[in-house]
């Protein structure tokens, strides 16, 4: 009989959960380089609704009667509002600026845990999260960065929505398997996006093969697979640890931006990259100790 190693199990959960933001990191480049322009809510809708239907066809699990209200709240925070705001920010802001704003998520999660549960975070965890924001700024911001007000507000609201959803998903712990929980949130969140996409976005043009493939990738990988891994991680890791892994999304976007469009790494970018990565590892370590 073998004894399970808790440290190895924790870091395996960290690695699996980290795959979700790595996949999400491709959202910016797919949105700007492949998808039709100026249709943020349509992109969010196509991303989440089909994958939610597929997961529920597989899981075949209905929520308990008393879980519907909380499930609707989680669907709005984690999917509906967050996806809409994410694509608004992606269309209006440079990926770097949106990433710096989104880097505050671990701090927001710690603030929620402190304010709601009186769980004061470790000082080392707080400083590690702050270092992640600073490192992201060093890595991505430049004197020519355009601070577009609507995009900034969308990025801030999206970070607050995702942080609150991550915290409440762990706090409420709905009695559902991960795939069913993921499927219902994608379906309900997608349903919330239908009227917004219908009223706010122009109709889709005839799609090219690449555009169709882009939407399919965002739905199957960016929603179905990534959110299943994300909610699995929330069930097994501390909320602040999961939220910190979200910084891997902009790091992935940066790497893709350097590799695919051929942008060069300049100045202190390497230092910022190292600081952000060290911040992620430090938050994982301190959260696991706590």
Automatic annotation (TrEMBL):
Organism: Pandoraea capi
Principal subcellular localization: membrane
Subcellular location: Membrane
Pfam families, alphabetized: EamA
Transmembrane portions of the chain: 12-35, 41-59, 71-91, 97-114, 126-144, 150-169, 178-200, 212-230, 237-261, 267-288
Domain EamA, chain residue ranges per copy: 14-140, 151-282
Keywords recorded for this protein, A-Z: Membrane, Transmembrane, Transmembrane helix
Name the record gives this protein: ABC transporter permease
PANTHER family referenced in this protein's UniProt entry, alphabetically: EAMA DOMAIN-CONTAINING PROTEIN (PTHR32322:SF2), INNER MEMBRANE TRANSPORTER (PTHR32322)
Membrane-topology descriptor: Multi-pass membrane protein
Family to which this protein belongs: Belongs to the EamA transporter family.
Repeat is among the record's keywords: no
């Amino acid at each position: 009989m073998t004894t399970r190693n808790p440290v190895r199990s924790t870091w395996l959960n960290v690695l699996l959960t980290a795959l979700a933001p790595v996949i999400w990191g491709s959202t910016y480049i797919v949105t700007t380089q492949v998808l039709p322009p100026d249709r943020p809510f349509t992109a969010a809708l196509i991303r989440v609704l089909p994958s939610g239907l597929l997961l529920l066809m597989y899981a075949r699990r209905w929520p308990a009667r008393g879980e519907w209200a909380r499930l609707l709240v989680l669907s709005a925070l984690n999917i509906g509002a967050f996806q809409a705001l994410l694509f608004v920010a992606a269309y209006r802001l440079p990926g770097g600026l949106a990433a710096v704003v989104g880097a505050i998520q671990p701090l927001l999660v710690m603030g929620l845990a402190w304010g709601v549960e009186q769980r004061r975070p470790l000082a080392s965890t707080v400083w590690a999260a702050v270092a992640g924001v600073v490192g992201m700024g060093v890595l991505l911001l430049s004197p020519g960065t355009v601070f577009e007000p609507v995009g900034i507000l969308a990025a801030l609201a999206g970070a607050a929505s995702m942080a609150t959803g991550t915290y409440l998903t762990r706090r409420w712990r709905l009695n559902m398997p991960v795939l069913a929980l993921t499927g219902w949130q994608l379906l309900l969140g997608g349903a919330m996006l239908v009227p917004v996409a219908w009223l706010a976005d122009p109709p889709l043009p005839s799609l090219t093969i690449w555009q169709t493939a882009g939407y399919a990738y965002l739905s199957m990988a960016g929603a179905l697979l990534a959110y299943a891994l994300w909610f699995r991680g929330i069930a097994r890791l501390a909320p602040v640890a999961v939220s910190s892994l979200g910084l891997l999304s902009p790091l992935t976007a940066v790497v893709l931006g350097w590799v695919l469009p051929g942008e060069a790494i300049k100045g202190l970018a390497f230092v910022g990259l190292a600081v952000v990565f060290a911040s992620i590892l430090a938050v994982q370590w301190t959260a696991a100790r706590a």
